[in-house]
Amino acid sequence: MVSTYNANGDNGDPGSTEGELNAWKHRPPYRVHDKADDFKVRYEGSCHCGKVKYQLSREKPLDAKYCHCTTCQKIHGAPFQWAAIFHKDDINFTHGHHDLGWYESSEKTCVHKLPCKVSCAYCRTPIMDEGRNMILLFPTLIDFKRPEDRKNFDISCHMFYPRRVLDIPDGKPKWTGINDESDLIEDSPQEAVNELKRKRQEEDEKKDQKS
Known about the structure:
Blueprint: E1 43-46, E2 53-56, E3 63-67, H1 70-76, E4 81-87, E5 91-95, E6 100-103, E7 116-120, E8 126-130, E9 134-137, H2 147-151, E10 157-159, H3 190-210
């Protein structure tokens, strides 16, 4: 596959919204909401240089997590990634529609292939991870007006905790990989460990009944 990535980071025609290469601009999460959409702005966020700015309509993310995998560590240049999950229609880009760059980490390409990582093509600030159905936003880009707004983004768990570069003894569930698909380890609440054992025991019993 040949990349159509341009110098401004836009996989299409700079400044244009027409044509097949620009079709992504009309789909969530990149489609710009108009007044008829009744998009209620609850938060605003931006990249470091300010070329990319967006609004959020959902008060609380669907979930928020710390990911300690090595890919997140390298791409963010940080000990872990703080990610908040939203629906694609929950975001509205107000600036920078043509200043986005994409990176697909498994094939290491700059084409818009899901899932992919989205960044500002100018200052390179990571904006979000775009999945097939959801987006993962980074709360450090959001301008929280009140402490209670920041609290809405408190994490529910840690993922890939064995790969951590520092300990975080916060009492949150800590998974060896993706949450609910791996094992809970040290410092996880005992009630979470017990609940996981119960669920997996029920799953094993259902499998036994089918067999």
